[in-house]
Design brief:
The chain is α/β, with parallel strands linked by helices. It folds into two domains: 14-187 and 345-446, Rossmann fold, CATH 3.40.50.1820; 191-334, no CATH class. It contains 16 helices and ten strands. A hairpin with a 5-residue loop joins strand 3 (53-58) and strand 4 (64-69).
């Protein structure tokens, strides 16, 4: 979700010389362990301190990236995996947007590096590779960090998890990431995290019958759209408003429209304000997945799912369309997106309890996966009572980074209560915004998203 207007990078003014690491905690000249070209000096976004050095480039696979190194760098790098994903081709503007949103990291003394990823679309392992490639660029052409923290936000949390599993001391010959920070994460893997969007598609169609319309060629809704379909988001929004009037306040909807909105809220368990976004993702992201990632078949199904919360659940369950996930597509998607629970470094996560995009119940699923994979003791989860999906608050993130680095460097494993107690000490510098809820534990994912048959 995008909450910052994208700014354009200033024109490159010079190829930067290699830093030698003086004063940054490294122990001499950097070993040239990346064959990637050096980045170029660019003007920084206005959101970061004016003394920050910014560098940008395009890697050998076509991913744009942006690096910010504050004048008071503490020697630690935050390697960022962004949310989304965007379906369009990457542009440099995306990296500017991400640095603007996460300027708090630079203000707190951390270097920051973010890749746009080489392509649009729902492909996790490729994005993880792009993130690791950027680590090499920073190490070779900027400085050798004392510590590298992998930060995944929203969909990028799944990218960060996959990167932490793929790139380890055994696979790259060194410890690439010292810790992992997951914020507002779409966790648990694509084969679980997107089930409710399949449910939304079939419930919406049961109620509205206009996506597709009866006069249009029918197609399996779990495909999102047929591969050749060219519907736009504006066209889908028009259909949604035709049925649900989401563009109007509840008081201005007809009784029938409001009843349908209420049914979706109760059955799918998302607020009216989130219906359009999830319907978009269940349309266009599902099309990207089925057409480009899983061989033309869908990894999603709702066979066996029992829907509750409507005025007539029996009629709803009898009337919704039913689909069975294609086994081969399911396995391909699982291989790309699902975590194994085998992460060799500390992992700290944070989520707004009422996040309508990445439910807190997804964190319960991720906890179960980490436990099953043998990494449960390396996971600490925290939750907040305030925030948004895209950003919780300024003091939240320095609090989390400090706790994670104390765990990495001193072996002091944090607790939810300890993180909550520490946060107010950061408010004097970064402003109010602490709202950690240490007693909160998310319910199982199946309490929110109905269980179903799986290949």
């Amino acid at each position: 979700m995008k909450h910052f207007q994208r700014a354009r990078l200033a024109a490159p003014i010079a190829i930067v010389a290699l830093f030698t690491g003086c004063g940054d905690g490294s122990d001499g000249p950097i070993v040239a362990d990346s064959t990637e070209a050096a980045p170029r000096s660019v003007a920084c976004p206005a959101a970061v301190p004016s003394t920050t050095t910014c560098l940008a480039g395009v890697d050998s696979k076509g991913a744009y990236y942006l690096i910010a190194k504050p004048a008071d760098w503490n020697g630690r790098l935050v390697l960022h995996a962004h949310g989304g994903p965007d379906l369009s081709a990457p542009t440099a503007d995306r990296a500017v947007e991400d640095l603007t949103r996460w300027s708090i990291m630079v203000k707190a003394g951390y270097a920051w590096a973010g890749s746009t990823f080489r392509q649009g679309g729902v492909e996790v392992r490729a994005a993880a590779e792009d993130t690791e490639r950027l680590r090499g660029i920073f190490r070779t052409h900027v400085a050798k960090p004392v510590r590298t923290i992998l930060h995944g936000q929203s969909w990028g949390a799944g990218v960060a998890v996959k990167a932490a599993e793929m790139f380890t001391a055994q696979t790259v010959g060194e410890v690439p990431y010292d810790g992992v920070l997951l914020t507002s994460g779409v966790l648990g893997g694509g084969t679980r995290a997107y089930d409710f969007r399949t449910d939304l598609r079939v419930v919406y169609q049961y109620l509205c019958n206009n996506h597709p319309r009866p006069t249009e060629t029918p197609y399996p809704l779990n495909l999102g759209l047929p591969a050749t379909a060219t519907m736009t988001q504006a066209e889908l929004t028009a259909r949604t408003n035709e049925c649900l009037a989401l563009d109007k306040p509840a008081a201005q909807r007809t009784a029938a429209q409001q009843a349908k909105v209420q049914t979706i809220e109760n059955v799918i368990k998302i607020p009216a304000s989130a219906i359009q976004a999830h319907l978009n993702w269940g349309t266009f992201h599902f099309q990207d997945i089925s057409a480009k990632r899983t061989g033309g078949a869908s990894p999603f199904g709702n066979t066996g799912a029992i829907y509750t919360g409507s005025s007539d659940d029996a009629a709803l369950n009898a009337g919704v369309l039913r689909y069975r996930a294609d086994p081969t597509a399911y396995q391909r998607f699982a291989t790309d997106t699902d975590p194994t629970g085998r992460i060799p470094v500390p992992v700290l996560s944070a989520k707004w309890i009422s996040d309508p995009t990445a439910f807190a119940e997804l964190d319960a699923r991720f906890r179960a996966v980490m436990d099953a994979g043998g990494s449960g003791d390396r996971l600490v989860q925290t939750f907040t009572t305030n925030g948004t999906h895209s950003f919780i608050s300024d003091p939240t993130y320095p609090t989390l980074m400090t706790a994670l680095l104390q765990w990495v460097e001193q072996g002091a494993k944090p607790t939810a209560a300890g993180v909550a107690a520490a946060c107010p000490t950061f408010e004097a510098k970064y402003g109010a915004g602490c709202s950690f809820a240490p007693a909160f534990t998310p319910a199982a994912l199946e309490t929110r998203v109905p269980a179903r048959e799986r290949p």
